[in-house]
């Protein structure tokens, strides 16, 4: 009886799901194109011939696989109201890969093809980490305070995404501000137009038409064609890229840990909404699709998106995922994003930057108990160092000014240049130290703070010891992985761990905790 259950291919609710997936993924594509083509100057044959098709192939396969999971769940439970999981490009991971890996590589290597091969390798490694989340994810979720993980990601969202989004809007206020106002009315005011049309859709579509009418954008079909990557060539570049990308593992691994924890949370939210999907299977699927993306030239990972509960409430089924996969896959392979990149104004992407960043920050504070707000705030700070380091080195021209790696492994400017920067009033002291492994440092700092709030000084001490070990091997505070027995950070973390253990042993003997203490 159950085996005969079939989900309708397309329902009215799938229209909203299709709008949600396609609109937001298209904007992510445009962000990738704007960064690679506009900021870094990568050639079109690399961006549109390798990166975009690779991302599209991986994303299409993930959309189709989540339809398979939905059908399997429908047969298992004997019902036809199952909603497919929403799949898409991981926006936080995309920003970290673009600005934390691709950009410094591009400036250091002066060769977009080598930088691309390293980014492809980074994406593949990220897929492996995502896949491993099916095994180690539950343990990490139990042992890493939620405030530390969400706070670090919120810091990334705020410093990289919110700032870029708002600045893009104000860079062209005649276009940006009207789009901003209409989008905000829906996103944060909760308004809807007739027929329940979201103001964000009106802002995006209307913004494109408005910008075109003012002559800010153009219709250009010259780049439309057939772009299907050669997997043999891409595989060769992938192998070469592993050597180049090794120093960036300290960035790649933690953001992919966040990615698979995000998948866990979003699938569990789907389960709470009534669709009991396998968390482990979704993590495996994310990892495999991300590896496929890399093998075809893509550089950003896939993930299960937020929003399943809303799609479920709107009575979406599987059709939106099937059509989204076809549309996004075809757009990448046939070069339609060359047309869209000329037609969509930057302010449209800016709205998405800002929206996603606000959601990330708000989520961190909303889902965690108020007593952990300090842990969230502390964990948000290290990504700021990453941002400042990138801005300063970019403005000075990192390729032209000699840098050095100290005995402890920190990569920064030599003493003369460092003094010049500090004398100019630029906040620089400690920036290179925190920039290296900023994501891991944020998680460590937030974890220690959360354990202290919970009066678990022994666990805080163990976290300090873990930080000392990570410093020794160069996962934090170092330019590359290696052995740093003279690292001042390892010594500092070690001393702090001993102090915390002593304080833990003195608890209720000569150290007393206040009852109902509130640090605010």
Overview of this protein structure:
The protein is an all-alpha fold. The chain folds into two domains: 13-371, no CATH class; 381-505, no CATH class. Helix content is 70%, strand content 2%. It contains 21 helices and four strands. The strands form two sheets. Strands 1-2 form a two-stranded antiparallel sheet. A two-stranded antiparallel ribbon has the order 3-4. Helix 2 (44-77) runs antiparallel to helix 12 (319-333), helix 3 (91-109) runs antiparallel to helix 4 and helix 6 packs antiparallel against helix 7 (199-213). It starts with 12 loop residues before the first helix and ends in a 15-residue tail after the last helix.
Structurally, the number of domains stands at: 2
Q: Helix and strand string, N-terminal first?
A: HHEHHHHHHHHEHHHHHHEEHHHHH
Residues in helices, as a percent range: 55-70%
Strand content: under 5%
Q: Note the overall shape.
A: globular
What's the N-to-C terminus distance?
59 Å
- The number of strands is 4
Q: Strand order, main sheet: write it out.
A: 1-2
Q: Uncertain segments of ≥5 residues (pLDDT<50)?
A: none
Tally of individual helices: 21
Mean pLDDT: 87
- Given helix and strand content, the structural type is mainly alpha
Q: Work out the radius of gyration.
A: 24 Å
Q: How would a crystallographer describe the biggest sheet?
A: 2 strands, antiparallel
List the helices and strands and how they pair.
Elements: H1 13-39, H2 44-77, E1 87-89, H3 91-109, H4 112-143, H5 146-171, H6 173-187, H7 199-213, H8 231-245, H9 249-272, H10 279-295, E2 302-304, H11 308-313, H12 319-333, H13 336-343, H14 346-367, H15 373-380, H16 382-396, E3 403-405, E4 411-413, H17 415-423, H18 431-435, H19 438-453, H20 457-472, H21 488-505
């Amino acid at each position: 009886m159950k085996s005969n259950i079939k989900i309708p291919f397309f329902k009215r609710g799938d229209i909203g799901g299709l709008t949600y997936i396609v609109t937001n993924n298209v904007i992510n594509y445009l962000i990738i194109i704007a960064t690679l083509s506009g900021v870094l100057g990568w050639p079109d044959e690399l961006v549109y011939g390798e990166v975009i098709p690779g991302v599209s192939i991986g994303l299409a396969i993930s959309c189709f696989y989540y339809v398979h999971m939905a059908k399997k769940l429908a047969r298992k439970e004997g019902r036809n109201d199952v909603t497919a999981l929403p799949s898409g490009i991981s926006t936080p991971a995309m920003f970290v890969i673009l600005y934390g890996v691709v950009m410094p590589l591009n400036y250091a290597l002066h060769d977009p093809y080598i930088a691309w091969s390293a980014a492809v390798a980074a994406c593949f490694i990220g897929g492996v980490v995502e896949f491993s989340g099916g095994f180690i994810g539950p343990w990490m979720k139990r042992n890493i305070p939620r405030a530390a993980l969400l706070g670090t990601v919120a810091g990334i969202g705020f410093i990289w995404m919110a700032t870029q989004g708002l600045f893009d809007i104000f860079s062209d206020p005649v276009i940006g501000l009207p789009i901003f106002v209409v989008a905000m009315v829906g996103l944060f005011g909760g308004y809807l137009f007739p027929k329940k049309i979201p103001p964000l859709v009106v802002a995006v579509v209307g913004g494109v038409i408005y910008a075109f009418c003012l002559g800010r954008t153009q219709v250009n079909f010259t780049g439309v064609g057939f772009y299907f990557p050669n997997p043999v060539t891409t595989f060769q570049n992938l192998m070469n890229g592993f050597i180049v990308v090794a120093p960036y593992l300290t960035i790649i691994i933690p953001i992919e840990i966040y990615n698979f924890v995000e998948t866990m949370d979003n699938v569990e939210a789907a389960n709470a909404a009534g669709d009991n999907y396998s968390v482990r299977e979704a993590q495996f699927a994310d990892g495999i699709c991300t590896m496929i993306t890399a093998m075809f030239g893509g550089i950003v990972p896939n993930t299960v998106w937020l929003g399943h509960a809303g799609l479920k409430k709107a009575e979406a089924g599987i059709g939106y995922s099937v059509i989204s996969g076809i549309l996004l896959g075809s757009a990448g392979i046939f070069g339609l994003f060359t047309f869209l990149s000329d037609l969509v104004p930057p302010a449209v992407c800016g709205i998405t930057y800002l929206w996603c960043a606000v959601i990330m920050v708000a989520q961190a504070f909303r889902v965690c108990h108020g007593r952990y707000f300090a842990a969230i705030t502390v964990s948000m700070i290290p990504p700021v160092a990453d941002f400042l380091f990138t801005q300063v080195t970019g403005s000075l021209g990192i390729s032209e000014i000699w840098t050095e790696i100290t005995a402890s492994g920190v990569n920064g400017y030599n003493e003369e240049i460092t003094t010049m920067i500090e004398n100019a009033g630029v906040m620089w002291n400690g920036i290179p130290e925190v920039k290296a492994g900023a994501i891991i440092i944020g998680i460590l700092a937030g974890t220690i703070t959360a354990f202290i709030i919970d009066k678990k000084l022994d666990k805080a001490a163990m976290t300090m010891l873990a930080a000392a070990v990570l410093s020794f091997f160069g996962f934090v505070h170092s330019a590359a992985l290696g052995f740093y027995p003279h690292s001042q950070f390892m010594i500092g973390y070690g001393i702090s761990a001993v102090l915390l253990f002593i304080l833990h042993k003195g608890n209720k003997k000569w150290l007393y905790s206040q009852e109902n203490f509130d640090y605010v």
